[in-house]
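As agreed, record copied across for absentees:
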Amino acid sequence: ILSTLESLGITSLQSGMDNVRNVAGSPIAGIDPQEVYDTRAMCQALTEYVTQGYDGNPAISNLPRKFNICVVGSADMFEHPHINDIALVPAKSNDNGKLGFHVEVGGFLSSTRCADAIPLDAFVAEADAAALCHAILTTFRDYGVRGPRTKTRLMWCIDEMGFDNFRDEVARRMPGGNLPRASEATTLLPDAIAHHPIDPIDESHHHSTRRSVLGIHDQKQDGLQWAGLCVPTGSLEPGDMTALANIADKFGSGEVRLTVDQNVIIPNIPKEKMDAFLEEPIVQKFTPFPGMLVAGLVSCTGARWCPQAQIHTKSNALELAQRLDEQLSFPEGTNEVRMHWSGCPNVCGQSQVGDVGFIGTSVKVSKDQAAVEGVNLLEGGRIGQAPAEAQLVDKKVPLGDELEQKVKAILMEKYGAVEK
């Protein structure tokens, strides 16, 4: 199994512990009519650097804490750059017009602190992107805090060193000891909010400023479309994976893509085959046209598989989303309302970036009864070019009718939902 995966460019190396996780790029790279940068080749190059050709890279395998890298492909920022340790944002040199990246660093989520990535005030050419990542990673390796694990992510290292000292050390480790300033290049990203305007109920809630990859969409290639299939909470059984592979072979080019929002994209489907594609049983199961809340659902593994989880996330998340989708309608033009579930304070479900976030906890309903599953409830998270951290609005809400009514009230007050 592992050999077959490796032959397809997939490896389990560096997929856990204190090292670099898989490099994230745009899920619609190379097929998106609105992309400004095709992230595929750069993601592959960085993956080969991180894994040293899939043999393992000892130089960056013992970091103070885990590490995330992404390459941005469009103004929609499907890669969530603000919560990555390194985000490469496409830009063009003012001197020679060559492509490269502005660089942001230090983004992360945790149980004790969340921080958006900050500009490194740097421009790096495409050819030097791996060298830049190496300079940042080895600086983190050598100077990063190795104390309590809640204070060991890259941003803590930047705080400890001081931003100017951190940048100077990264520049010193670059080829030639030089790191150009951000002002030497111009961003390639348009303003996402200006290009995809939605009138929010409250101007503090830009909850639909990015496109949805779900549904059926025309590709930049004439006559081809991609299908974005909703896989609620990312739950796939082995038979589902086989069925998805089969329809990718039958209708597309044999390619299946995964998104950071736990959904699936089948690209390169000829338009004349789309009607037949939509009739396939697996497409009926993972419909491209889900309810608004099921479409935006993200969940961690939960107590079914994870010993740290305090609640069962996936089943409860899906049940709540389906029930509220049956009851509520949202304003025309709303692409998604994102509900993110985490089973414990480690927030693997990225609860703080959800429009509505859930963090599992135990709830003592009465002195005489055993504790039941519940959540701490958050609201107001945003992603994209104007990110924001969701804030706690209620503590220790038991799962069930009480939680449903509280979430329903938030959706009606903040996101324009109305009873059907």
Remarks:
- The CA atoms of residues 312 and 372 lie 11 Å apart.
- Residues 192-208 have pLDDT under 50 and may be disordered.
